Protein: FAD-binding oxidoreductase
Organism: Paucibacter sediminis
Amino acid sequence: MIEAFLREAARICGGAHVVAGAAIEPRYLEPARYAPGRAAALLRPASTAELAQLLPLAGRHGLRLVPQGAHTGLVRAATPEDAARDVLLATERLREVFELDPLDRTLRVSAGYRLAEINERLAPHGLMLPIDLSADPSVGGMLAHNTGGTRMLRYGDVRANTLALTVVLAEGQVLRLGRGLQKGNAALPLQQLFIGSSGSLGVIAEATFKLARCPRQQAVALVAPSSVAAVMPLYQRLMDELGSLVSACEGISRPAFEAALACGGGERARWFGGELPEYALLIELSSELPAEQLDLQALLQRWLEAEFGERVADAVLGADAACWALRHHISEGLRARGKVVGFDVALPRRHFMAFRAAGRAWLAEEFAPAELADFGHLGDGGMHFNLVWPKGAPPLDEARLRAGVYALVRRFEGSFSAEHGIGPQLQASYRQLSEAALLDWSGRLQRLFDPAARLGLTDWGPAAQ
Amino acid sequence: MIEAFLREAARICGGAHVVAGAAIEPRYLEPARYAPGRAAALLRPASTAELAQLLPLAGRHGLRLVPQGAHTGLVRAATPEDAARDVLLATERLREVFELDPLDRTLRVSAGYRLAEINERLAPHGLMLPIDLSADPSVGGMLAHNTGGTRMLRYGDVRANTLALTVVLAEGQVLRLGRGLQKGNAALPLQQLFIGSSGSLGVIAEATFKLARCPRQQAVALVAPSSVAAVMPLYQRLMDELGSLVSACEGISRPAFEAALACGGGERARWFGGELPEYALLIELSSELPAEQLDLQALLQRWLEAEFGERVADAVLGADAACWALRHHISEGLRARGKVVGFDVALPRRHFMAFRAAGRAWLAEEFAPAELADFGHLGDGGMHFNLVWPKGAPPLDEARLRAGVYALVRRFEGSFSAEHGIGPQLQASYRQLSEAALLDWSGRLQRLFDPAARLGLTDWGPAAQ
């Protein structure tokens, strides 16, 4: 049966781009943090027109399509599971369109392009797609999870930078939603539904993004607030006084700091004389003004002096690359220490530190060997509440851990998925933690677009009766 | 039959807030630009709980509910039409919630609050909801049309400032969508559907907005580019060099300028020695930095000197109130000259001036007595392509005019509704100008949420067969 499907698919996108299950290269099946998946076949279409034929074809054969961009996601939404029924739909060859409009500062681009390549091509024009991540996702993947990243505080999430989408629906209709305009309210905003839908509802073929001017200067400081209690008031004053210049404000707990240092993140002695604070902040200012008009480094220095007074040594200024290298070595550093269990949560800023304290206390009581090494996007309330389960410790009851952490998140009015989206990894938590009315209407909406459940691995509805 | 409905409604929201058709005060039925409407009754609920009972009640009685906020919209979406069947649902008493969180910079607020009151209450905290309009709409109305306004360039539209919504559906379910978090991707983004839905799909009861810091200084200039062709290049350099400080960039054509001057917009002689340019730009910079750190007035002055050289008299700097008064007198000035026919369109910036030239030429040929007096939000591509049909001219064929303008908008890849939304006023144009697939899926979506067509006056689907 699958053979008939493969033959027909090959007629649509060429034999070289239709691969039977056993012959799929491992990179398509091996996600970043989890066990490998399985698929009946791999398709690599090159155009919207091919997508429009492949989607109904898969439906007629009773197969489920799993769209996959760069396979950098962290919720297993792009890793097929079922060797008999799942067909992997790789979007990497969707590269039909790359249309830059420098006056409008917009980019119309096919779903298969990746973030780094886009920004390389935009740099000569002084423009950028202002999403900043350690990973290098595709356009489609970023849209599917509404990615945030370290500069969301200034530039917003992917949704805030998306002006239009082209999607292909399960039955093959092509919907062109929105235009490449900065504004326009001449239709229901259907495009918004597909942003953050984790590859369900439809396959994103193309997007039009709003671009930002690359900054002409930046200033970075790593600061050590006098205590955890001092962090949020410091952040509030920063935003009140320099807010529109702040392009990132990242939080780093001491264990995360230690882990990064132990793993290539730089020399300990250069940071605060080697006395690491319980919680550090990485602050970045950016501007398109040249330093002659506004000297960011001097401005940040004056602000730090006013804030820290005699303790100004508790701030390290002017080490942009070193600060960011430290930040970007955290994940690797944690992996070197044991099994990492990651929680990508968001909190109201007013509860951020209280949640952290409660989580720490709860872990100490219930999961004693665990080491909390949180870090993340403090400025927008995002927290990677990550912990290390040391090598050699007894087996971890991950389900109980997860339930406990999410109960705390709920108590502090947070979100159990800040920017990684929902996929099989969070499917059960999603059902447990969401209100019945939301599940009900989300399920109805999904069935409207995909009545036979042919797209993606996420089920937005309530559990089947 | 309506009597039974009124009795039951009075039990829900109190007799004083249920009014039979003939007794409705004129302000509820008289929209800004159009003929008065008619309604079978007026309801003024005070809470989400009352809404949840009223919506299904109206459905059981076969009535259609027309939500109305401050009744400032320009597409007749809030003016009921049918004296037998339409029930006006005024949201002005929905004032249950006004919860400011200064650390998170969020405001949870009921739909009945109006923009001016919100910003008055936020000002002492140095915060604002950064939507800037001549009108004073309600929270619900702004959301229903995804309002833009003069500072959208800097702060985005209403959607960009909305974190969460509470909506009541036709059958009475209350959906709480999103949280007051800066980020969160733990559900399908259903709330996005209701923003810009013109009062259909559901009734918005409450919203949580992201707030902005009020600026500590502003600098405003009115400038006269040497020609229409010079306008967009000037804008591009402005954004390239000072972009993140620009909070408004408005365009004013000479006829619009003349009209404003004739109607209280200020003295002619103070502007460019009385020699009005064919097209003027109003530029505003804002910052939360104090002038000691960055002097916006000096910065703008230097930029104008570099741009205009010896012709620097073609820029009027430091007359903030006068510049904005001029801008805000345009609409009134046009009304004094004759019948105003307004088109709220948006263009890609690259086609903005070409569209304007083509529109002007077409009007001169086909509608000779018409005077084009366009103005608007040049920075975000928004153009109020407004024309005056002089008093005493022969009757205007408005349908032919509208069709011709929209054909041009389409030729230049624009939107026929930039920020006023769709309502009965644009219903026919919406059907004519939208792609069949978009109409089809929008109609399906509307029927999902409102199967019996009980909510609002906009039909998002294709014409009935």
